Amino acid sequence: MFFLFMTISNDDRFDLLYEQYHRAMYRLALSVLRQPQLAEDAVQNAFLRVFQNLDKIEAIDCSKTRAYLIVIVRRESFKLYNQGQRDMANLVDVDDAPILETLVAHSPEMLFDHLDEVHRLRGILSTLSETDQYLLIGKYAYGYQYRDLALLLGMSEKNVSVRITRARQRLVAQFSTKEGSDNA
Fold first, then answer.
1. Number of H helices, E strands in the chain
2. Axis crossing angle, helix 63-84 with helix 36-52, rounded to the nearest 10
């Protein structure tokens, strides 16, 4: 398979990659950016990088290629996200806005309590593997189904389910431990 893929012209190799991965890369970019046009821009930027580094791709349908493309589109998505988010949005996620509006309306003290929890949760999330972070955020923040996450990351649904369960257990245990040590 490797030999066959490497003998195909660069244009054909690129077309095959585009056909196979464009949709999954777009869904990932959209989950980060939440704007279809920006997501499409991120995917196009990612494919430009892929084209420039086409010699690094050995085969189309392999986990190494999927991982490589996910990393590239994720980086491009975050670049675009950060370009548009220079103000207070860096401090608070867009997903937190409705919660924050409610907290501010009731009590400014509640706002700071919530922000502390968000920062603590982000710190704990950063201790998990990158894949486990993707899985938890994809499942709970964006509402992806196991089958969608499995397709996106090139895993089986069962593996996704098990990893999410274990990552959630580690997250809860660490959050409880940190909460207990903060109160001591």
1. 9, 0
2. 130
User: Confidence class of residue 48 from pLDDT cuts 50, 70 and 90?
Assistant: very high
C-alpha distances (whole Å) from 94 to each of 45, 61, 68, 88 are 24, 35, 28, 10
Closest CA to 62 of 168, 154, 151: 154
Q: Quick count: other Cβ atoms within 10 Å of Cβ 183?
A: 6
- Centroid of chain to Cα 52: 23
Which helix H or strand E contains 68, and what residues bound it?
Answer: helix 63-84
Packing angle of the helix pair 10-33, 63-84 (nearest 10 deg): 50
CB atoms under 10 Å from CB of 139, counted, come to 19
Report whether 103 contacts 117 (CB < 8 A): no
| pLDDT at residue 160, rounded to an integer | 92
What's the token pair of residue 4? Answer: 């066959």
Q: What is the pLDDT of residue 3?
A: 43
47, with CB counted inside 10 A (0-12, 13-18, 19+), is buried
- Is the pLDDT at 120 greater than 90? The verdict is no
Q: What per-residue confidence (pLDDT) applies to 180?
A: 53
